Amino acid sequence: MDSPSVSEPVLRVRGLTQRYGDLTVIDGLDLDVPPGTAVALVGPNGSGKSTLLRCLTGLDSAAAGTVELDGRPLDERAVATRRALAVVTDDLDFFPDLSVVEHLDLVASAHGVDDVHAAVDEVLSAIGLSAQAGQLPGTLSSGQRRRLALATVFVRPRRLMVLDEPEQRLDTDGVAWLGDRLRADVDAGAALVFASHDPDLVERVADTVLDLGAS
Ligand SMILES: Nc1ncnc2c1ncn2[C@@H]1O[C@H](COP(=O)(O)OP(=O)(O)OP(=O)(O)O)[C@@H](O)[C@H]1O
Do you know which SUPFAM superfamilies this protein is assigned to (predicted)? Predict the structure, then answer.
């Protein structure tokens, strides 16, 4: 059967190990993330949260172990992977000459969203960027740029969201909104892995907490 089974994990990780020189950051990690489930990665600075997320998304190659998305080895270049996987990391990359609304139009169109204008309008309004729709990324505040990065996740179909400290630079209301939105997405069937230093967000969103600082 070609379509992924609902009972199978969206993400399956086995024996994942990552090293930088002599430093072993991730050591033989196993993880299953079924649909409709959120996993939070917690732990102090340097405990390996971003390293793990980079390996999960194919941004970095692990030293050992396997990462499967919907039962197939994760290949970040494959169309199926790009359709399923929505990622926000620390590095916010935008086209300097495309406005907020043009970025979201582009992402929604590239992912085959049916009614691009309706989807973009909904996300702009929900994430609080309607008034900035015509602005270029360079003219946004740092929190607004972060909102734009998150909006690129919410404007497209996704089976798995991988988010590195999504609360970064958001104001209090923004973090509260984000918690509700992520939890609603997960309840609707998405899988989520996110790193966070915000205990309230972790409590609000996560089904499972993985403490990378615990030995
Ligand atoms: N490219 C690299 N080369 C060498 N060491 C690295 C590299 N990337 C990360 N590290 C090291 O790996 C360890 C884990 O870093 P990582 O960024 O994954 O931590 P983190 O848990 O995400 O931290 P933070 O909470 O500060 O975001 C750190 O000791 C870091 O110095």
Answer: P-loop containing nucleoside triphosphate hydrolases (SSF52540)
